Amino acid sequence: MDLQRFTESTRAALTAAQSHATESGNQRIEPEHLLLAMLDQENGLTVRLLEKLGIDIDNFRSEIEKTIQSIPRVSGPGYDPNSVYISTSLQQVLVRAEKTSKQM
């Protein structure tokens, strides 16, 4: 998976997702972190698509935040907040996105 093949917007969302994971004390960056980051993007496509589907963005965001709160937190003397990594499930999402973009 080559992150440089993704759009600038997607790379920015991945960076923001890493920040969300770090702020939440999560060691892995999960798809929910990325989704929350995509919802935060000003003029982002994600919010517009969800609104067209009739989804209440505030409620949706709240549910995502609850899910993130349920992810195990890591803390203590050996914890390095700069050592977060992409989870297997997020890796699968990104690989699938890359394959889909190649098909288009």
Query: Hey, roughly how much beta strand do the residues contain?
Result: under 5%
Query: Quick one: how many beta strands?
Result: 2
- Biggest sheet layout: 2 strands, parallel
What overall form do the CA principal axes indicate? globular
- Give the strand line-up of the largest sheet: 1-2
Q: What structural class do helix, strand and pairing data support?
A: mainly alpha
Task: Indicate the multimeric state.
Answer: single chain
Unreliable residue stretches: none
Descriptive tags:
two-stranded parallel ribbon, globular, single chain
What does the model show?
With 104 residues, the chain is mainly α. The protein contains five helices and two strands; from the N terminus they run αβαααβα. α1 packs across α2 and α2 (31-40) runs antiparallel to α4. The longest helix is centred in the first third of the chain and has 17 residues, at 8-24. The model has no long low-confidence stretch (mean pLDDT 91).
